[in-house]
Amino acid sequence: MKRSITILSLTAVMIAGIFFAQQTSNANGTIPKQPTFAKDIAPIFYKSCAECHRPGEGAPFSVLSYKDVRPWAKSIKEKVALKTMPPWHADPHFGEWANDRRMTQTEIDMVVTWVNSGAKEGDPKDMPPTPKFTNGWTIGTPDLVIPMPETFTLEASGPDEYQYFTVDPGFKEDVYVQSAEARPDNRKIVHHIIAFIQPPSSKPKYDLSKYSKEEIEKLRAQMEKNSPTYREGFLIRTKMDAPVTDDGCASPAGGKLGRVDRGQDMENGQLLAGYAPGMNQAIWEPGTVKKVPAGSKIVFQMHYSKVAGSVQKDCSSIGLIFAKTEPKKLVRTFGISNNAFLIPAGANNHRVTACWTTKEDIHIVNFMPHMHLRGKAVEYKAFYPDGKTEILLNVPEYDFSWQTAYYFKQAKSIPKGTKIMVTGYFDNSTKNKFNPDPAKQVRYGEPTYDEMMIGWMDYTTDNERAKNTTAMK
For the segment 309-323, what is each residue's pLDDT rounded down to a tens digit? Predict the structure, then answer.
């Protein structure tokens, strides 16, 4: 996973390539000498950029009009030429992805030529139809919006906070969800949202009803004393002296510290919707759905970061679109994770692995790797029962700011007995400009200044069908 050339060299090579491609395209008549926004650029931006670059979204400007785009022309040229925008980090040699955001080389050349020739508007009559979006939602108009039960107030200073809110949506019968979106109310402070399904059959791990408050505190203190983790305010972190397993695939315990992380026991498909910076929302193929059993509650796990410098408020929500066709396949979400690793101070390419072996024939719908600020690269690899291996996804330049879910063009068939290995690489050196403190060892933990290594995936089980029930209208 070592970088073979410097960023400076890479930039020079890419700019030279763009210049050559531009000259070739012009010579062939593919790209006009003076492209215009209305005729040549707007169609590209509408296709590749407008999902995020539109009013109400997190991007700093909209691409829906020339007036909004023009002040950003030079910056757009730089980002597009270096292929940092649109953001896409998967190695194109492995897998085919339905949500691939990349521009073609011709489109890149067109944008560069447009800026170099003066970034002209052109005739407004040449503008394509403005793409239609539902205000506030990327999945379209939800059939149901479920907000947090109350507005939360976050203090101005202190460490990150994990807060939990439970909502009863009042489902009297099983509900089948075709699309789901978690929507932050206050993007300044919402680091992530995970909305879980809490079925009526779920029970607390411990029955504390027969204990007094003092006895509960004593029990909690005893449990923390014997636990590899500890609480720091609203956060769970790993103790520095907890056992270390970097290669979870070679460990009988699989890189687990004898605990299940809050909200990450996903084998039963309990995750409903999520939000993280740059994350695209869950839209499954018709008939492929998430099931919310009758009587279930929805639990919001909210990770708040105090970056605004003042008291802030938030009331985030999730939007659901129900299945309009007969539900056939149930989507399950699972995180292949290692929570026992330790990243040494100054390490620039520390390797951590986690493995999972499927007990059934499955089809993988998507992957979403998750690490924090020291995350450098990640790979998913399959070891098939017949001895063959295959790289399913390679992300050579992981970017914490873009928590992309990579959707297969066609769901990937994985036979029973296949081992899937997730390998993450971390840069805890001074070369990592996002590193909170390269002088410190790093363990697994909830705050962004700790680390995580989770290979999320959505999948369906081949021999499991959704209940033959009339879909909700």
Answer: 789 999 999 999 999
Q: Which residues contact 9 (CB under 8 A, 6 or more apart)?
A: none
Assigned token pair, 296: 């279930």
pLDDT of residue 221: 67
Q: Identify which has the larger pLDDT, 54 or 127.
A: 127
Q: Tell me how many degrees the CA angle 324-470-271 measures, rounded to the nearest 5.
A: 65
> For position 132, what pLDDT does the model report?
83
Q: Find out whether the peptide bond into 86 is cis, omega within 30 degrees of 0.
A: yes
Domains, the chain, ordered by start: 7-126 (no CATH), 135-199+270-327 (2.60.120.230), 240-257+330-473 (2.60.120.230)
CB 194 within 8 A of CB 265: no
Residue type at position 178: Q
Mean pLDDT in residue range 210-217: 69
Rounded Cα–Cα distance for residues 399 and 237 (Å): 23
Structure confidence at residue 15 (pLDDT): 36
Q: What distance, in Å, lies between the first and last C-alpha atoms of the chain? A: 49
Q: Which residue has the tokens 């084998």?
A: 267
- 3-state SS of 319-376 is EEEECCCCCCEECEEEEEECCCCEECCCCCCEEEEEEEECCCCEEEEEEEEECCCCEE
Pick 303 or 27 by higher pLDDT. Answer: 303
Q: Are 125 and 41 in contact (CB under 8 A)?
A: no
- Cα gap 200→222, rounded to integer Å: 30
Contact 468, 262 (CB under 8 A): no
Question: How far is it, in rounded angstroms, from Cα 49 to Cα 86?
Answer: 7
How far is C-alpha 71 from the geometric centre of its chain's CA atoms?
30
Distance separating alpha carbons of residues 191 and 306, to the nearest angstrom: 10
Looking only at the bridges linking them, the beta strands covering 317-322 and 175-183 are antiparallel
* 15-28 pLDDT per residue, tens: 334 333 343 344 34
